[in-house]
Please model this.
Amino acid sequence: MKALKLGIGLVSILLLNACISDDYIDDNIDPVLNIISSIDTLEINTDFVFEYKYFNNVGQSESTEVSWSSADPNIIDIDATGLATAFQLGSTHIYVETIADDLNLIDSIEVAVGEMTTFEEVIEIIEGAIVTTSSYKLEGDFVFEATETGVELSFKDNYSASTALPGLYIYLSNNNNSIANAYEIGKVETFEGEHKYEIPNLGFTDYAYIVYYCKPFNVKVGEGTF
Model:
């Protein structure tokens, strides 16, 4: 019985070491501020409310105090709430700014004033690749795209993951080093070839990373970037 317990203990240590390797992972990331309005042209003498997304230093989306400004208020003026008014034909840049963790974050978008309001074509499909961050095999190309009900994450036939990975789970996250505040897709059941996950009620821009975790040890073993 002692020998059996010792054997189980050694296996657990080997699996843990294989997952962790010798790397220390800092969960903190740089905060991000983005204008999410996709407007290209604003009709003259009309209003439009600009919106932003802010992700803090652990990748969590939250509201923050921002300031809005226009490079040329004579063309488009914008107030503190993001409400913009088009006054004359031309184009200018709209800026959003905040200070977070002693960092000055700024994003901008160029907007024209014309005879009618138009929007930029929104990209709703992204291709990328999964890479391992441990000694285990984990690789393959993926496609992430919007659907009528949410999003779909599909993997191509070159996908391959080691079946020796203990308790492998897949997540969508805004922090590639953490699954805090992440969306758990579920336990990995397919380790070779094409497969997909249909995920309802999620937005295409809600998350920025795919993250694979050894759930029993809470250790990241792979990632993909949107």
User: Anything to note?
Assistant: The helical segments are 2-20.
